[in-house]
Amino acid sequence: MSNEDTPGHYEVGYGKPPKATQFQRGISGNPKGRPKKVPDFDTELLRESKALITINDNGQRIRISKLQGIAKQLTNKALTGNISALRMFLTIWQPALERAALSATQQFKSLEEYDDVRKIPEEELERFLWEEIERQKRNAKRDTQ
Asked: Is residue 2 classed as helix, strand or coil in its secondary structure?
């Protein structure tokens, strides 16, 4: 019977360390670990747009998100007559109004389970939606002034 036939026999050599020292207790086989995921551009953009900045608004220092700052700046430039800013503002504004109207409609749909909402005439709901859109327009104008 040779040494190769015995159970537990292991040929030690190049790339084959002795079994006793092959895996040491308490030491990871992957010391650096798995590399951290590199965040994609969308994630980075969202995180940066939520970051807060301090601005001077009518002599008061307020903290707003960078996204709000961009919206403020775009609106202010559009109001001063910057044509490209005005064009961009109008391009962005119309879909935003439509999304706001859709959001208001969805809020009503979530309330459909209540009988009192079902009793409201459709014309009255439509009037409410248009009033809501106009109110949001006025608020946006007031915020930009």
From this structure: coil
* Of 102, 73, 75, nearest in space to 86 by CA: 75
Residue 11: pLDDT over 70: yes
Closest CA to 99 of 64, 143, 136: 136
Task: Pick the closest to residue 108 from 95, 131, 126, 96 (CA basis).
Answer: 126
Predicted TM-score (pTM) of the model is 0.47
Neighbours of 74 (CB within 10 A): 18
CA distances 79 to 72, 83, 136, Å, are 11, 9, 18
Q: Is residue 1 over pLDDT 50?
A: no
Tens of pLDDT, residue by residue over 93-142, are 888 888 888 877 777 666 555 555 556 677 777 787 888 888 888 887 77
| Alpha helices (H) along the chain | 19-22, 41-50, 66-79, 83-110, 115-118, 122-144
* Token digits of residue 97: 């109004």
- 8 A C-beta contact, residue 51 and residue 65: yes
What residues contact residue 10 under an 8 Å CB cut-off, 6+ apart? 16, 18, 19
